Amino acid sequence: MTFIPLAFGLAAMMATLAGGLLALRLQHRIGLVLGVTAGIVLGVALFDLIPEALGLAEGRWPVRGLMLFSAAGLGGYMLLDRLLAGIPRAAESWRGHLGPAMLCLHSLMDGLGIGLAFQIDTAAGWMIALAVLTHDVADGVNTVSLSLAARSEAAARRWLLVNGLAPMLGVVLGLAIAIPSGMLAPLMALFAGAFLYIGACELVPRSRALDPRLWTSMATLAGMALMLGVTHFAH
Q: With 70 as the cut, is the pLDDT of residue 91 above it?
């Protein structure tokens, strides 16, 4: 039984790396790529994380309580980003790593979910693992795009490697430890809030500044539509 979730962790790692390498090949069109990435990140928050949080919270957390966690995720990320912006040289040293780090934590949580689900029920493990795999290519694209926008290609490659390893590490942790199932819903809601800020307040303005054509905005809408289709298929 342990082999199956580990195999899914390996597949998630390969899918993430493939998406990141694709984004690196398309970096000469970074404005358009960032437009698509913005839509994907917003789509992950709206069509994946929030519905998943609501499903996990059924009977445990009220909807308003989960929305407060989402608001805390958005507001907390905003405050941290603004605080780092006000520290001398923080934009060069720390701030550019904040977004990619959040994406890596999300990938870690994806792997953790796979490991925990297989501990509870094999059928649930398969369902969650397949859902994770359907958007891991997008995770790689998002990590590289955000790193390229804020840092450099070298930073993008480093964060891509970290994000590739994150789901495998999450699976191992999920198989080895037990996290209270009641905490998964608020964690998903927190990530959703942070992703809403990253997509709407960082990626959309950057893509618009780099390429103000209508195609960039259409690419963002296409990214959201893509995640709507992916999550619909996965669930």
A: no
Per-domain boundaries in the chain: 3-234
pTM: 0.72
DSSP 128-166: HHHHHHHHHHHHHHHHHHHHHHHS-HHHHHHHHHHHHHH
Confidence of residue 169 (pLDDT cuts 50, 70, 90): very high
Nearest C-alpha neighbor of 70 from the set 105, 47, 95, 45: 45
* Token pair listed for 9: 């962790």
Q: Amino acid identity, residue 23?
A: A
Q: State yes or no: pLDDT of 190 exceeds 90.
A: no
Phi-psi region of 89 (alpha: psi -120 to 50; beta: other; left: phi over 0): left
Sign of the CA dihedral running 110, 202, 232, 163? negative
